[in-house]
Amino acid sequence: MEVNMAYYRKKDWIKFLKIIDDRDSMHDFWEDWHKSYLEAKRNLTSKGLIVNDYVVDLNKLKTYCKISA
After folding, report:
1. Model confidence, pTM
2. Which residue segment(s) compose the domain that 8 sits in?
3. Which residues contact 30 (CB under 8 A, 6 or more apart)?
4. What is the spatial distance between Cα 19 and Cα 68, in angstroms, rounded to a whole number?
5. How far lies 18's CA from each of 1, 25, 32, 43, in Å?
6. Cα–Cα distance measured from residue 52 to residue 64, given in angstroms and rounded to the nearest whole number
């Protein structure tokens, strides 16, 4: 079984933090988020899942959030 995990690029991190509604529940630094991401990914792969990194396009995310609000 395969799963896609949302992946945010380091260069997009500040922009990402500015557009999300739940800013207070997100890591301040990309490095901290990335460490958690890798841990979650390892956990899933250890259970036999194939994990694909899905790079989030922040422009598309922003549009999606406006439409879904």
Report:
1. 0.85
2. 2-68
3. 8, 10, 13
4. 14
5. 34, 13, 17, 29
6. 21
What is the per-residue pLDDT across 27-59, written as a single tens digit (0 to 9) for each?
A: 999 999 999 999 999 999 999 999 999 999 999
* Contact partners, residue 45, CB within 8 Å, separation at least 6: 51
Q: Report the run of H or E that residue 25 belongs to, with start and end.
A: none
> How many angstroms separate the CA atoms of 62 and 64, rounded?
5
Following DSSP, what letter does each residue of 33-68 receive, concatenated?
HHHHHHHHHHHHHHTT-EEEEEE--HHHHHHHHHHH
CB 12 within 8 A of CB 61: no
* Amino acid in the structure at residue 24: D
Q: Kindly state the tokens that stand for 57.
A: 């396009």
